[in-house]
Write a structure and sequence with these properties.
It contains twelve helices and 16 strands. It is an alpha/beta fold. The chain folds into two domains: 218 residues, Response regulator (Rossmann fold, 3-Layer(aba) Sandwich); 141 residues, Response regulator (Rossmann fold, 3-Layer(aba) Sandwich). The strands form four sheets. Strands 7-6-8-9-10-15-16 form a seven-stranded mixed beta sheet, with helices on both faces. A five-stranded parallel beta sheet has the order 2-1-3-4-5, sandwiched between helices. A two-stranded antiparallel ribbon has the order 11-12. Helix 5 crosses helix 6 and helix 8 packs parallel to helix 9. It is globular. InterPro entries: BCAA_transport, Leu-bd, Leu_Ile_Val-bd, Peripla_BP_I. It comes from Methylorubrum aminovorans.
């Protein structure tokens, strides 16, 4: 075979199509770069995309079977498909091909550890969603304890989308909140999603007078409407919106209402020299409205796979178990400093290790990044964790400055 087919299961239609478009771009861009450098041991990569639509188990599993049986792919590398709940692992494990995804599911840990021999080729290129919940509570506690923000109270309201991903994050927030001095006074309340109407739940939240509202639903357009409806009658609290607020679609829909919103991701584009250089190249390739912070996920994993396969002596096709096991071993052994930070796979979970949530060493984990929308027409800025921050936290414009006066951050 003169080329190496690389499959990608991507939601090009449906509610996550905006992210799906960026996932496709990220794979295409990485393949172009790898091929320009000679491919994998002289063989060029060929990307093949299959639409997963609503990302249900049937659609994603069917996509995996098509990529394996029809296209004979040597690896499947993509962003997320929230909804399949690991159903696609079965045809992939049967064929023994390498699979790197960004589903952000704690269930990945359980599946891989339940039968390491069967699921040797299944990797999650980002940390599990559980770390979002724990990390968010640590983050707001850091803002409070460092004097950057003085909350009126310790009251926390949690709203969740109806996807399991959102519910796990919301429950993780609740489970550790009291350990850091927070009192959950609302929720987690699950709102059936997708939705653009948040008025009723916001009215119920308003009665609890929270210092923080966290909404763990992640569709960019939906949470943009949430923020606009919040600002129609703002509360004196911080607003955290899950993942989707990183996307350019969120800014386009929310407009000026986006200013001051906090958003987190357990894997995202760094705003350092490496990350900014990638962002410039990405925009030059796909245009100013592209979102490199989303495309960087599969982009990084394609590069990591290419390195591991080259060191392993080449990639393997379906049912070439021995060679694919060798590639899998190299993925675990070789840490990769990507545009999103250091991707190091846990030897048992086969998922990226998060910093500072699971390791205190920034060189040994991918950073759990917190951004804030500052000067909303520009790119969101990283405000945590140290040493990746590029701007200081700013009080959102709707907050009462007289009651929440910031101080300088400790140790900075």
């Amino acid at each position: 075979m003169s080329t190496i087919p690389i499959g990608s299961m991507v939601p090009l239609t449906g509610a996550s199509a905006a992210d799906g478009r960026e996932f496709q771009r990220g794979v295409e861009f990485a393949v172009e770069e790898v091929n320009a450098r000679g491919g994998i041991l002289g063989k060029k990569l060929k990307p093949i995309f299959v639409d997963t639509g609503d990302q249900c188990a049937e659609a994603v599993s069917a996509a995996a079977r098509e990529l394996i049986s029809v296209h004979q792919v040597h690896a499947i590398i993509n962003g997320y498909n929230i909804g399949a709940q690991n159903a696609e692992y079965e045809p992939i494990a049967d064929a023994g091909v390498i699979y790197i995804h960004h589903n952000t599911l704690l269930q990945h840990h359980d599946t891989v550890m339940s039968d390491p021999g069967r699921y040797f080729g299944c990797f999650m290129g980002d940390p599990a969603e559980y770390w979002y919940g724990q990390g968010f509570i640590k983050f707001i506690s850091w803002l409070r304890d460092s004097g950057q923000w003085r909350p009126e109270s310790n009251r926390l309201a949690i709203i969740s989308g109806s996807r399991p991903y959102s519910i796990v994050i919301a429950n993780a927030m609740r489970s550790v909140a009291a350990d850091f001095g927070w009192c959950v006074v609302f929720g987690p309340e699950v709102v059936k999603t997708p939705t653009s109407n948040w008025t009723a739940v916001l009215e119920r939240v308003r009665e609890t007078k929270p210092a923080v509202i966290a909404n763990t639903h992640f569709y960019a357009s939906d949470i943009a409407h949430f923020q606009k409806q919040f600002l129609s009658k703002p509360m004196n609290c911080l607003v955290y919106l899950q993942y989707g607020a990183m996307h350019q679609t969120f800014i386009e829909v929310a407009g000026q209402a986006a200013e001051g919103v906090i958003v987190g991701t357990v894997i995202g584009l760094l705003h350092d020299e490496v990350g900014k250089a990638f962002g410039r190249r990405y925009h030059a390739r796909f245009g100013p409205d592209a979102t490199p912070g989303v495309g960087c996920l599969p982009y990084s994993s394609v590069h990591h796979f290419a390195i591991a396969a080259a060191v392993a002596g080449g990639s393997g096709g379906p049912y070439e178990f021995e060679q694919n096991r060798e590639v899998a071993r190299r993925l675990i052994e070789i840490s990769y400093r990507s545009v999103a930070g250091t991707i190091r796979y846990h030897p048992k979970w086969q998922a990226a290790i998060p910093y500072p949530d699971a390791t205190n060493d920034p060189s040994q984990g991918v950073p759990h990044l917190f951004y804030q929308v500052q000067d909303y027409k520009k790119e969101q800025v990283v405000i945590a964790p140290i040493p990746y921050e590029k701007s200081r936290f700013r009080l959102p414009p709707w907050l009462s400055a007289s009651e929440t006066t910031p101080k300088a951050a400790g140790g900075k």
